Fold each of these.
Amino acid sequence: MTASAPPSSWRASVVTLFPAMFPGPLGLSLAGEALARGAWSLETEDIRRHGIGRHRAVDDTPAGGGPGMVMRADVLAAALDAAAPPGDPRPRLLMSPRGAPLVQKRVRELAAGPGLVILCGRFEGVDERIIAGRGLEETSIGDYVLSGGEIAALAVLDSCIRLLPGVMGAAASETEESFESGLLEYPHYTRPREWEGQAIPDILLGGNHKAVAEWRLAEARRLTRERRPDLLRPAGD
């Protein structure tokens, strides 16, 4: 189990068959620095520790037949209860391709709370009964299938941790990034002024902040129309 920071920090608990995958990239850069100084904490709960019998079995054949194996509800319940006993106020997420897509609004809600408990599935999935039995929120990071929930859990945690107070250096940059305003982010440029025949747009070099802001908004709208028109549709369409 990973050493945790003071109890006042944003607490993450990951329930997984592969605790060695954590903190992984979250132990580096800004997230790693924040972890080291106690801005957030991380604990892992090894599902195998709660397995059944001499071989610590965590899965079984699917009821009704079919390929693969399914993770057992009793084993997962024991692991979840060890990571987050009754009364723990943190949301409990199950990383699943059939879950609700993770959006920035939900990320902000999660980052503003006390932390997260994340269950990482493997094999064909988990026994359906654990979802209702432990109040799991099925969450997806995209319309594709991974080998397990660990990489998805890392993505969720990273998206939350960067919003915690004191983690990012420039707070203003948060509000100008993709999805914060319902638009994709505008293009960025820096030195050199010209590179391989491509120049920085003149409007960004003229010192007119109002014109720059208008250009950036127009570019954000253009990119959103071209790449993610779904973001421009009214809710309910």
Amino acid sequence: MDVRTRILEAAAGLLSQAPEADISTRAVCEAAGVGAPALYRQFGDKEGLLSAVVDYGFEQYLSSKRAAQPSDDPVRDLRDGWDNHVAFAVDNPNYYRLMWSPGLSAPPEAAAEAHRLLLAVLERCAAAGRLRVSPETAADMVMSANSGVALSLISRPAIYADPEFSTRVRDAVIDAVTVPPTAADDAPEDGRTAVAAATLGALLRDRPPAALTEAETALLREWLGRLSDTSTPS
């Protein structure tokens, strides 16, 4: 096992047992059997170590999401992704708290990848005509609500004791950004425009038209993104 992995495993073990989402570099060095210079050569400083530990701890969760086979219903996949996100947070509270800690000036890559994976599911929702706002706006809404629920459950379990709490918030948020399979035609005119714009925008990202230049395609996608976010979800 190389020095970097040894340090990460030691830090991960200490983090899982810590009463708070924090560990000391001295304790990590002792657990890994290395000196402080070796740790700082690998990670730069404590913040770099903590960020790397989060990525290390989240790898199994993210690898399962990368390998997941999409179903024929992207909205169902969106709900399943929410539930898996909350379950991981509850099972690994210190990793999760640390990933969203304001003390880390640079967010761990795990947070960025989780957002990209969510955006990919929402692109599928848009391509299927199921999204009422742009995928980017929907991703911001879903991720902020999903992480908020997860942090509430692991930080204040006595307050958020309702077993249906996560499900209720999940359904409210997903209903706000998606439309039922047959509802688009019955929506108000601005709603139909937004759904159509989100759908076309997703299709353009997946299959850029040969008749347009790259710059023209980017401009069209920008316009469609604005149209996607013009209607107020009902």
Amino acid sequence: MKQHRPVAAAVAATLFALSGAAHAAGFTDIKQINAGDLNVGYVDQGPANGPVVILLHGWPYDINSYVDVAPQLTKAGYRVIIPHLRGYGSTRFLKAGTPRNGEPAALAADIVALMDALKIDKATLAGYDWGARTADIVAALWPQRVTGLVSVSGYLIGSQEAGKQPLPPAAELQWWYQFYFATERGRLGYEKNHKDFARLIWKLASPQWHFDDATYAISAASLENPDHAAITISNYRWRLGLEAGEARYKELEDKLAKLPNISVPTITMEGDANGAPHPEPASYAQRFTGKYKHEQINGGIGHNLPQEAPKAFADAVIAVGRL
């Protein structure tokens, strides 16, 4: 069976493209590579010998958050890598028995494994939501692999212990879906209604972003991944301490629980209309001990900052290399 996995992954990538990502505004040039536990679907654009930037998407979005960012970066000479995270698009687990684990350390380890598979020694990492958290973790634990960091909503590293602490009522209200996912009803509901659920999250997280049906459909195709619901539920249950992580990630999670500082050059960003839960910039600025800058992006910009303000995001990726 092992020899057939690359073929199966290639078929998955083709079917993904045909399912909706083939729209003119979406990426269609999806490549596949075995990396760690996964066969990763990813975009690879720009000059092969250019400085590498890896763009990481959030939940419940996908690689097409960067469809207008990538051309600006390749024009500037960057090699741009945009992977589907585990549970999205054409990315697949290599083994049926591998836990469908959504804990943060696992997602970060995936990116390091991808860099190894692509023989990328160092890269600029940039992301939002789950992607920003993943980039933060790699920058904190493997700083030698990171030349620069662009993180929407700043420092997002946490721990299960921190996740158990109660928040003010207004903040708890913003996390309504996390509590929904903690129930069996929520798990079944997300499996059944994930497309409608994701669309609702898009609207709540970016209340002034008037995306059209075609834009949503392109990214919603990525949610048809057979492991998407399991990874989503695992991630949010892990945060509340309702699900144990894998033993092989315990050492990494122990380090993250100490909230390590990030020393690589960093630009953090925030949109002025972010409707998703997010910390105030003043609360995390001290976590970045290297060259650092924060940018507030105005104009009704919500949670999916790279898709809503692609020029500002691309400019930040270029600027972090000059800090």
Amino acid sequence: MTIRRTTLTAAATLLALSAVAACNDGDAQSAPTAAGAPATASATPTATATASATPTPVPTPTPTSTPTPTPTASATPTGAPVDATGAFDPAVALANADRTPYAATETMKTTATAGGQVGSVLAGTGRVNYNTPTREGRTETKMTLADSDEPALWMETVNTGTTIFMRDRTKPGSAWRAEERGDKARADDLTVYVKALVEAGPAARKGMEQKNGVPAYHLGARLTAAQVKAIDPTEYQKMVDKGVDGGKQIDVWIDRAGRVLAQTQSMKMTTGGTAVTSTIALTYTDFGPRETFSAPTTAAAG
């Protein structure tokens, strides 16, 4: 079956921009329309962020150095007790999870496919704070479409905690643009799906595995639309708006301290009569103490 490029590109762009918003935070952030995508394609973040119109440019902040934070390895996690084989109970790990803010390197890859054809690949990485209200961090995300190696989208984002700065790297010399975060508080709890999967029963418990070189417990199940609605009504509404069919497959891997080491989300939707599958895979490594992310400057914007 041949899928029309415009249909697949539109769906791929929608999913990709959703992942950008989710990865980069952005209670109110925007991103450019990818090449070849219809002008009406809009982003609806995968997590709890909400996209908005392009912010009004503001003057460049007073120059200060903005070195990229260096990941700092953390000590061996404590938390749930382990047995002789190193296994632990994920419910105990979750119940005793430390809520102290911490930083981690977040790596994300999103693919959108239809009829066996890959519509887009979106890859992103960055350093991000967790267990914080505003999810400060610095990330970079690049998307390529199936018929081109040139990035259709290439965004760099800095979230200082009070302001979000973005620039479009597909445009040489593109300036940073900034906007206030406003009064919205972003829910950044990575364990929300862990809790849902623990409560899903024995079938969701897949057992111990190695993840990122760390002993981890794998939980996985397909959550129905009703279950997603109970967890996060906003996300549920976005799934409805995107035409998601049959809920969402969620898999997470946690360490004994209750930290999420990796997660994948897979969902199917119908766009223009075409069934599209979106898969998002995220990993979290190099755990360390909370870091500070300063506003970008002219000197750092090259």
